[in-house]
Write a structure and sequence with these properties.
Length: 525
């Protein structure tokens, strides 16, 4: 089986093969490559536009996720239900109903964070698609009671940032992102600020803690989309020169006179800005944890990517030793605003695989009596069945499922539909419900009652985020009721079963035909 057949043509890079579905499975090229073809596949287009074709396009308007069909994913497990008993509630049909399921919990080592749903919105940094939709996404997180993380390079990319002696003293862009959440904060969830190499040098987290009232920070080792630093595109020479002067890697070099001439002649329209990779050591990690705690951080998170197993072991061990409040492990295949496209598909440990290793490593530490942090798993989650499976596969360690593309999609759709409604151009799909926001969005009236006068200034995309999460919540409650688990702490690994022997071998989850074998025999005897 070829897991990446046809990757030489993809909507992500706006490429297509002349031969359609007649693709050579190893190369991804057309079975016949024709002299005279204009070259619209990735190989052909790369002959004309070169490294531009490395990345998803158009930049700033899309998010992208891996097209690779991994051998084992969450669809290879089914959720198990039972007709017997109830956990977390009286075993009575009058009380054991799905609206009674408790989806709230607390996370954190010492200072606790209440969350209304077992979800955290993953870090989104300096890409345009994140910046353009942040107000909607952050307000949606706040009214939904879930944590959200501000991603890397926001200060460094801020045109109006003030830097003195190499440190940020004022960043309107970061301040606005924090405010977008705090303006609608309801007492559950939190907003955290992430930092990469450049952010740490600039003192971004110290600025956020001391000047913006942020209480949580996230140290970043990486993400599941790529194993290099973050990148964005820049559409003016002035921006490229500005960011080059701030110490970023900018390609091609905007200070080169020949490059400037080529840009002005229209040979290319965008520069690339890249961040540096981090160099993790145990000593520097613990030193940084102490620095941010000394600066006022009440919670310290760690985000690591889909690196090789030894790096996952380091993340688990270091997080335990430092009493990290939330460790987020991001599997390959999830999503990106701008990562090299083939890296997105071909690099790293996919989510099910990395979660299986994660449980194994946490088990080892737990048996030694070591501190186990709250853990979030990330990498392509979007709907309630996947949330349940992520919590079950990682039980009892997984506290939250991290999402990014799906909440962002709900914010973008909510924003778009809301704008169309307000302009009197209600999409036909929704016109049957009415022509006002309170009619088209099913939970808008509920939010209006909940928020009172604040509803009028709520970004309309936030209604989309809230409504999407409420759908997730009801679906999750229904799955949990079927498993007779009426609170999150009762979810266990035997609430799912592996549909294939391979899935069982990788994860240790029981193969479905072996499930309950002993109990069934006792019942029959």
């Amino acid at each position: 089986m070829s897991f990446s057949k046809g990757i030489n043509q993809t909507l992500a890079t706006l490429t297509k093969a002349r031969a359609g579905d007649d693709i050579a499975p190893y190369s991804g090229m057309c079975v016949t490559c024709l002299d005279g073809c204009a070259g619209l596949c990735e190989v052909g287009k790369s002959a004309v536009r070169g490294k531009e074709v490395l990345y998803p396009a158009p930049f700033g308007k899309t998010t992208s996720a891996s097209e690779k069909d991994y051998p084992v994913d969450y669809s290879h497990f089914n959720i198990m239900g039972t007709a017997v008993g109830a956990h977390g509630i009286e075993a009575d049909p009058e009380t054991a109903i799905f609206p009674a399921v408790n989806l709230g919990r607390e996370i954190g080592a010492d200072t606790k964070i209440k969350v209304r749903l077992p979800i955290v919105i993953g870090a989104m940094g300096s890409t345009n698609v994140a910046a353009d939709n942040w107000d909607h996404l952050a307000a949606g997180a706040a009214i939904s009671g879930v944590p959200i993380v501000i991603g890397e390079n926001v200060c460094g990319m801020d045109p109006d940032v003030e830097i003195k002696n190499g440190r940020v003293v004022n960043s309107p862009a970061l301040a606005a992102r924090v405010k977008a959440f705090k303006d609608f904060y309801q007492g559950e969830g939190t907003i955290a600020v992430q930092a990469n190499v450049e952010d740490t040098k600039l003192g971004v987290q110290e600025y956020a803690l001391e000047k913006l009232g942020v209480e949580a920070v996230e140290l970043k080792w990486g993400q599941g989309a790529k194993d290099i630093g973050g990148e964005v595109k820049l559409n003016t020479l002035e921006r490229a020169l500005q960011l080059k002067s701030r110490g970023y890697i900018v390609l091609p070099d905007p200070t080169d006179a020949n490059v400037q001439a080529a840009y002005k002649a229209g040979a290319f329209t965008e520069f690339e800005r890249h961040s540096r990779i981090g160099m993790v050591t145990e000593e520097s990690f613990h030193a940084r944890v102490q620095e941010v705690r000394k600066a006022g951080a009440k919670q310290v998170f760690l985000k690591t990517g889909a690196y090789r197993p030894a790096d996952l072991a380091r993340a688990v061990k270091f997080a335990s030793d430092a009493k990290i409040d939330l460790l987020t492990v991001d599997g390959a295949g999830g999503g990106t605003g701008m990562s090299p496209w083939r890296m997105m598909n071909e690099w790293g440990l996919p989510t099910v695989y990395i979660q299986a290793l994660l449980v194994k490593y946490l088990d080892k530490l737990a048996k030694k009596g070591r501190y186990i942090p709250n853990v979030a798993i990330a990498g392509g989650f979007s709907l309630e069945d996947q949330v349940f499976k992520g919590l079950s596969l990682g039980a009892p360690y997984i506290s939250l499922v991290e999402m990014a593309r799906a909440p962002l999609a709900s914010a973008m759709v909510g924003k778009t539909v809301g704008q169309m409604v307000k302009s009197g151009k209600v999409p036909n799909e929704y016109k049957k419900y009415g022509e006002e926001v309170e009619q088209v969005f099913i939970l808008a009236s509920e939010l209006k009652t909940k928020l009172g006068s604040d509803f009028e200034r709520l970004p309309v995309g936030a209604i989309g985020v809230y409504t999407y999460f409420e759908r997730i919540a009801q679906g999750l409650r229904q799955f949990m009721t079927g498993a007779r688990k009426f609170s999150l702490e009762y979810i266990t690994r035997d609430d799912i079963a592996a549909l294939t022997r391979e899935a069982a071998d990788i994860t240790g989850i029981t193969y479905i035909m072996d499930l309950d074998a002993e109990e069934a025999e006792k019942i029959l005897e």
